[in-house]
Specification:
By secondary structure, the chain is mainly alpha-helical. The chain has a domain at 129-238: Peroxidase, domain 2 (Orthogonal Bundle), CATH 1.10.420. It is 43% helix and 2% strand. The protein has helices spanning 5-14, 43-57, 61-72, 96-102, 110-119, 124-131, 163-172, 196-202, 209-216, 219-230, 232-247; strands spanning 138-140, 182-184. This is Plant heme peroxidase family profile domain-containing protein.
Length: 270
């Protein structure tokens, strides 16, 4: 196996290790944790080393890799351990429109989010557990501005937002301009993978509308938010399982697809 940067990035694609090691007993459907044991015995160590370097240089990279896994099917930032099923090959094509249609948006309603997950074989537990990935990472002002200034123009924030939190956000996210200003999705521990995302929701301090609706729009999702806020180990357990579930969304294996030498393009250069 080549050890070029392209290949290392590829390994991040097929095994986004937020740190491996709990056997989950899940049917892996053609993928398995030992996929590289013979062809590249040090694959996990290589990935962990490169990811650790990347996160040390830019903390946001941890969140970017989780989201990359989300798009491809989401490091010492803490978090759960699990065996990552490997062997998912790269597709021979890509669809921006398909990605935009399938990936939940920051302003989607809860029924829309749940429907998008169900289309891919994921359930409500997966919705709430994977949303916990927002315990790390940042969001642009343009993704939540509508929650700070309602349509009547009176400057009042979304009633589900904590008043002091909304005022703090408005300081860096004006009514116009500053679209790309960044804000932590978890303002308490933005660089640590923990359950403060859920604790923030209970305090009215969830940044995105798609976060807030988990608590306010459906009893089943609200119960999970409260359970994860109270028990970080339960969150870690469910998050790990849901990451495996997501990695098993229609994987190409065997002779399907290809293993790209450069993740940015097909091997034939197109």
């Amino acid at each position: 196996m080549a050890t070029s940067m392209g290949s290392l990035v590829l390994l991040c694609l097929v095994s986004p290790l937020l740190l491996p090691s709990v056997v989950l007993g899940h049917p892996w459907g053609g993928l398995f944790p030992q996929f590289y044991d013979h062809s590249c015995p040090k694959a996990k160590e290589i990935v962990q080393s490169i990811v650790a370097q990347a996160v040390a240089k830019e903390t946001r990279m941890a969140a970017s890799l989780v989201r990359l896994h989300f798009h491809d099917c989401f490091v010492k930032v803490g978090g759960p351990y699990w065996d990552v099923p490997l062997g998912r090959r790269d597709s021979l094509g890509a669809s921006i429109q398909g990605s935009n249609n399938d990936i939940p948006a920051p302003n989607n309603t809860l029924p829309t989010i749940i429907t998008k997950f169900k289309r891919l074989g994921l359930n409500v537990v997966d919705v709430v557990a994977l949303s916990g990935g927002h315990t790390i990472g940042m969001s642009r002002c343009t993704s939540f501005r509508q929650r700070l200034y309602n349509q009547t123009g009176n400057g009042m924030a979304d009633s589900t937002l904590d008043v002091s939190y909304a005022a703090q956000l408005r300081q860096g996210c004006p009514r116009s301009g500053g679209d790309n200003n960044l804000f932590p999705l978890d303002f308490v521990t933005p660089a640590k993978f923990d359950n403060f995302y859920y604790k923030n929701l209970l305090a009215g301090k969830g940044l995105l509308s798609s976060d807030e609706v988990l608590l306010t729009k459906r009893a089943e999702t609200a119960a999970l938010v409260k359970a994860y806020a109270a028990d970080v180990n339960l969150f870690f357990q469910h998050f790990a399982q849901s990451m495996v579930n997501m990695g098993n969304i229609s994987p190409q294996t065997g002779s399907q697809g290809e293993i790209r030498k450069n993740c940015r393009k097909l091997n034939n250069g197109h």
